[in-house]
Amino acid sequence: MAPTVEIAIPTTSLSPTSPPHTVYHITLRLPLRSFTVSKRYSDFSAFHASLITQTSEPPPVSLPSKSWFSNTVSNQSFREDRRRGLEEYLQAINESPDGRWRTSSAWRTFLNLPTAAVASSNGAKNTSNRLHAAITDPGSASNGQITDPTLWLDYHRDMKTHLHDARLQLSRRDQETIPSKQHESSAQAKSSLVRAGTMLGHLEEGLRTLSSRGSQPGQSPSSSLGEGELRRRKDLLINARKEKDGLEDLLQAMATKTRLDSAVAAMPDKDKEELFGKLDSASNGRRTPARPGRVLGKETERTRELDNQGVLQLQKQTMQDQDQSVDELLKIIIRQRELGQAIHEELEVHNDLLRLADEDTDRLKAKLDVGKKRIGKIS
Prior knowledge:
This protein is 63% helix and 8% strand. The protein has 379 residues and is mainly alpha-helical. It has a three-stranded antiparallel β-sheet with strand order 1-2-3. Strands 4-5 form a two-stranded antiparallel ribbon. Helix 5 runs antiparallel to helix 6, helix 5 packs parallel to helix 7 and helix 6 runs antiparallel to helix 7.
């Protein structure tokens, strides 16, 4: 049976650390997505030891040995030989009829594989088929499996891939100058957004089912989720919904701008000059207003429907209203000044009273001191 995961190490690179080391970029292709994992040789060595410990059996191909007389940083030929050897090492495990190494936790952890990709041969095939059915035909009967926690995460990853594709298409559409290319990018972005919206709906339904399972006693841990994980997945859906809505708004804005540009481009030159004004070569290509004294873009709802005489009358009325407002403001300021002066006078009176109270206190204190001396002499 063909493996459900395709593994290759197409490239290597040197790390920016000091001292540098070689990084091997492992490409993994699953039935519905692809990703890359970066490892160094010491990671392979630790993985090899862990794999033998868990399975009690060495893999079908030996790990390329460590060299004490050469290194992969300075020797490009040696680096290429080790890349090829590590690729054969992983491919031998992945394609071996004996699946004991692929079902170990060391294999899954090293390659960052989801649980569905490292199940047994029949189980992996069934899980892959379920996920493929859930993504290609969400309305089918097999879509009930979307409530599986692992399948839910894979479905969410594929939904995020559609959002990423839509963002890339919108960026490409913004850079295109040919209308046909712009339309093609917009269509692809809209298709990805529609697909992502459908998948979001099924993810929300599946999460509601998982929540109800968690509240029912007697459910197995594999079929239900804890409160913390449910909140995390709800946050994932909220963020994905916001991202999708933002991309849809961006697509709508781009479409509106395209329609406006097309409408302006289709207008006769006479209408353009009447609307935007004429190009003035003496002012570095700027347009002179079509109507003297009335500049397009600076009109308001009150002036747009008035002629010049009406605008003048409106301006006079506005200035009169402003003068009246200034007069009212002046009266308020005068009143505030009078209040301030009254408060100042009141404070001076209070200061005088406090000063008299201090003097009375000093006199009383002096009398008390004299009384104490006399009492002391009598006693």
